[in-house]
Amino acid sequence: xxxxxxxxxxxxxxxxxxxxxxxxxxxxxxxxxxxxxxxxxxxxxxxxxxxxxxxxxxxxxxxxxxxxxxxxxxxxxxxxxxxxxxxxxxxxxxxxxxxxxxxxxxxxxxxxxxxxxxxxxxxxxxxxxxxxxxxxxxxxxxxxxxxxxxxxxxxxxxxxxxxxxxxxxxxxxxxxxxxxxxxxxxxxxxxxxxxxxxxxxxxxxxxxxxxxxxxxxxxxxxxxxxxxxxxxxxxxxxxxxxxxxx
Length: 246
Fold this sequence. Notes:
This protein is an all-alpha fold.
């Protein structure tokens, strides 16, 4: 793969965000996915992003391993595996243009869900979770993570609905994604999206992922999260619009 200098800059920025989103602010992972899907062919971006996410998941798991609720993870995982299969079937039947639009649509939907969640919280609404909520979130997380590596906002909705404290939120999310991303590997490899070229690009970008993961926890304790998250959402919205018009 050959890239222009500005494309390399975007790739390194996206890789850093990938790591940072695992140990810092989970919601900004959607921006990283958007950048990769713009710089790379949309389908191939899925295979490039996955190994970097797994690398960052390992960092996040060891940082927050003492702060997680395994029962939340095991409760979602079987449903998420079903969603992986559905996403794999969809990804195997679309071309790059269709994949770009599908990823754009998923990102746009995640942004809408994120905005809805914030509005409900700001309105002081107590959100009760019906029995179907967990299975629905599990299946939807499996589909979105397979097609677009964009299940972060889905898990955010679920874990906030479970009213987990911040550290338990981050630890449970880290454990879930460490497992689900490893389970995705044979599906993505079968589609030919993980290959020698994608793994070579991963090697160039892994230092940026590690940097993002290492600075995530100390930075998130100092940065104004609302301002940072709003900026990421605006940029992700612009990226979603770009992909939908591909």
